[in-house]
Amino acid sequence: MARDVALFIGSLRAGSFNRKTAMAMKEIAAGALELREVGFGDLPLYDEDLEADPPAPWRRFREAVRPAEAVLFVTPEYNRSVPGGLKNAIDVGSRPYGQSVWSGKPGAVATVSPGQIGGFGANHALRQSMVFLDVPMLQQPEAYIGGAARLFDDAGRLTNDQTRASLETFMDAFAAWIERNAG
Asked: Does the pTM of the predicted model rise above 0.90?
Protein backbone atom coordinates (compact mmCIF):
# COMPACT_ATOMS: atom_id res chain seq x y z
CA MET A 1 0.00 0.00 0.00
CA ALA A 2 1.32 3.44 -0.94
CA ARG A 3 2.44 5.75 1.86
CA ASP A 4 0.40 8.96 2.27
CA VAL A 5 2.71 11.94 1.64
CA ALA A 6 1.51 15.51 2.05
CA LEU A 7 2.94 17.51 -0.86
CA PHE A 8 3.62 21.25 -0.57
CA ILE A 9 4.40 23.21 -3.72
CA GLY A 10 6.11 26.44 -2.74
CA SER A 11 5.14 28.37 -5.85
CA LEU A 12 1.48 29.32 -6.03
CA ARG A 13 1.63 29.97 -9.79
CA ALA A 14 -0.38 27.36 -11.74
CA GLY A 15 2.31 26.92 -14.42
CA SER A 16 5.30 26.97 -12.12
CA PHE A 17 8.36 24.79 -12.70
CA ASN A 18 7.91 23.56 -9.14
CA ARG A 19 4.38 22.34 -9.89
CA LYS A 20 5.62 20.61 -13.07
CA THR A 21 8.44 18.96 -11.13
CA ALA A 22 6.06 17.89 -8.35
CA MET A 23 3.74 16.30 -10.92
CA ALA A 24 6.71 14.42 -12.44
CA MET A 25 7.66 13.24 -8.93
CA LYS A 26 4.09 12.12 -8.31
CA GLU A 27 4.18 10.04 -11.49
CA ILE A 28 7.60 8.57 -10.67
CA ALA A 29 6.58 7.60 -7.12
CA ALA A 30 3.18 6.13 -8.03
CA GLY A 31 2.66 2.83 -6.29
CA ALA A 32 5.12 3.42 -3.47
CA LEU A 33 4.04 6.92 -2.45
CA GLU A 34 0.72 8.71 -2.81
CA LEU A 35 1.65 12.40 -3.12
CA ARG A 36 -1.37 14.41 -1.97
CA GLU A 37 -1.08 18.15 -2.54
CA VAL A 38 -2.01 20.29 0.43
CA GLY A 39 -2.74 23.85 -0.63
CA PHE A 40 -1.89 26.83 1.53
CA GLY A 41 -2.52 29.89 -0.66
CA ASP A 42 -5.63 30.85 1.28
CA LEU A 43 -4.08 30.79 4.76
CA PRO A 44 -4.32 34.05 6.71
CA LEU A 45 -0.97 35.12 8.14
CA TYR A 46 -0.20 33.41 11.42
CA ASP A 47 -1.26 35.48 14.42
CA GLU A 48 -1.36 33.77 17.81
CA ASP A 49 -4.27 36.00 18.85
CA LEU A 50 -6.46 34.06 16.38
CA GLU A 51 -5.85 30.69 18.10
CA ALA A 52 -8.87 31.20 20.42
CA ASP A 53 -11.05 30.69 17.33
CA PRO A 54 -8.75 29.59 14.48
CA PRO A 55 -9.74 30.69 10.97
CA ALA A 56 -11.38 27.95 8.89
CA PRO A 57 -8.43 27.79 6.43
CA TRP A 58 -6.05 27.10 9.34
CA ARG A 59 -8.28 24.28 10.61
CA ARG A 60 -8.59 22.80 7.09
CA PHE A 61 -4.84 22.95 6.56
CA ARG A 62 -4.01 21.32 9.88
CA GLU A 63 -6.60 18.58 9.32
CA ALA A 64 -5.15 17.89 5.86
CA VAL A 65 -1.56 17.56 7.10
CA ARG A 66 -2.17 15.68 10.36
CA PRO A 67 -2.91 12.20 8.89
CA ALA A 68 0.03 12.24 6.44
CA GLU A 69 2.78 9.72 7.05
CA ALA A 70 5.44 12.01 5.54
CA VAL A 71 5.90 15.45 3.98
CA LEU A 72 7.52 16.55 0.71
CA PHE A 73 8.32 20.13 -0.22
CA VAL A 74 8.97 21.22 -3.81
CA THR A 75 9.78 24.90 -3.78
CA PRO A 76 11.52 27.78 -5.50
CA GLU A 77 13.92 30.11 -3.77
CA TYR A 78 12.80 33.66 -2.98
CA ASN A 79 15.55 35.97 -1.72
CA ARG A 80 17.73 33.03 -0.58
CA SER A 81 14.91 31.51 1.45
CA VAL A 82 11.48 29.93 1.08
CA PRO A 83 8.47 31.80 -0.34
CA GLY A 84 6.47 33.67 2.30
CA GLY A 85 3.31 31.63 1.74
CA LEU A 86 5.15 28.38 2.42
CA LYS A 87 6.80 29.78 5.54
CA ASN A 88 3.39 30.92 6.78
CA ALA A 89 2.00 27.40 6.18
CA ILE A 90 4.85 25.93 8.20
CA ASP A 91 4.09 28.37 11.03
CA VAL A 92 0.33 27.66 10.94
CA GLY A 93 0.99 23.92 11.07
CA SER A 94 3.42 24.23 13.96
CA ARG A 95 0.94 25.91 16.30
CA PRO A 96 -0.53 26.02 18.85
CA TYR A 97 2.55 25.01 20.81
CA GLY A 98 2.57 21.29 21.52
CA GLN A 99 0.11 20.48 18.71
CA SER A 100 2.36 20.67 15.64
CA VAL A 101 1.12 18.70 12.64
CA TRP A 102 4.74 18.25 11.50
CA SER A 103 6.29 16.44 14.46
CA GLY A 104 7.80 13.06 13.69
CA LYS A 105 6.88 12.92 10.00
CA PRO A 106 9.80 12.03 7.71
CA GLY A 107 10.39 14.78 5.17
CA ALA A 108 12.27 15.74 2.04
CA VAL A 109 12.80 18.87 -0.01
CA ALA A 110 13.50 19.49 -3.67
CA THR A 111 14.18 23.00 -4.87
CA VAL A 112 13.60 24.02 -8.47
CA SER A 113 14.82 27.12 -10.26
CA PRO A 114 15.50 28.41 -13.74
CA GLY A 115 18.85 29.57 -12.33
CA GLN A 116 22.03 27.51 -12.06
CA ILE A 117 22.16 26.83 -8.31
CA GLY A 118 18.70 25.28 -8.17
CA GLY A 119 17.38 26.97 -5.05
CA PHE A 120 20.25 26.05 -2.71
CA GLY A 121 19.36 28.79 -0.18
CA ALA A 122 15.70 27.78 0.05
CA ASN A 123 16.61 24.11 0.40
CA HIS A 124 18.78 24.79 3.44
CA ALA A 125 16.45 27.36 5.01
CA LEU A 126 13.58 24.88 4.81
CA ARG A 127 15.69 22.08 6.27
CA GLN A 128 16.59 24.31 9.22
CA SER A 129 12.94 25.03 10.04
CA MET A 130 11.81 21.43 9.61
CA VAL A 131 14.57 19.92 11.75
CA PHE A 132 13.55 22.33 14.53
CA LEU A 133 9.96 21.07 14.12
CA ASP A 134 11.06 17.42 14.66
CA VAL A 135 10.84 16.41 11.01
CA PRO A 136 13.68 14.03 10.13
CA MET A 137 14.74 15.31 6.70
CA LEU A 138 16.19 13.12 3.96
CA GLN A 139 19.86 14.00 3.81
CA GLN A 140 21.00 12.25 0.63
CA PRO A 141 20.52 12.59 -2.20
CA GLU A 142 19.92 16.31 -2.19
CA ALA A 143 17.69 17.73 -4.92
CA TYR A 144 18.66 21.08 -6.42
CA ILE A 145 17.11 21.31 -9.88
CA GLY A 146 18.54 24.17 -11.91
CA GLY A 147 17.84 25.21 -15.49
CA ALA A 148 14.17 24.29 -15.05
CA ALA A 149 13.02 26.33 -18.05
CA ARG A 150 14.66 23.76 -20.35
CA LEU A 151 13.32 20.59 -18.69
CA PHE A 152 9.64 20.54 -19.72
CA ASP A 153 7.63 20.47 -22.93
CA ASP A 154 4.74 22.82 -23.69
CA ALA A 155 2.30 20.48 -21.92
CA GLY A 156 4.39 20.60 -18.73
CA ARG A 157 5.83 17.07 -19.03
CA LEU A 158 9.40 16.42 -17.96
CA THR A 159 11.48 15.73 -21.07
CA ASN A 160 15.01 15.64 -19.66
CA ASP A 161 16.15 12.04 -19.10
CA GLN A 162 18.98 12.97 -16.74
CA THR A 163 16.60 14.94 -14.51
CA ARG A 164 14.07 12.08 -14.59
CA ALA A 165 16.79 9.64 -13.49
CA SER A 166 17.81 12.01 -10.67
CA LEU A 167 14.19 12.34 -9.53
CA GLU A 168 13.77 8.54 -9.62
CA THR A 169 16.83 8.15 -7.38
CA PHE A 170 15.52 10.88 -5.07
CA MET A 171 12.02 9.39 -4.80
CA ASP A 172 13.39 5.87 -4.20
CA ALA A 173 15.59 7.24 -1.42
CA PHE A 174 12.65 9.18 0.04
CA ALA A 175 10.45 6.05 0.05
CA ALA A 176 13.19 4.15 1.88
CA TRP A 177 13.62 7.10 4.28
CA ILE A 178 9.91 7.00 5.09
CA GLU A 179 10.07 3.27 5.77
CA ARG A 180 12.97 3.79 8.20
CA ASN A 181 11.51 6.82 9.96
CA ALA A 182 7.70 6.61 9.85
CA GLY A 183 6.02 6.32 13.25
From this structure: yes
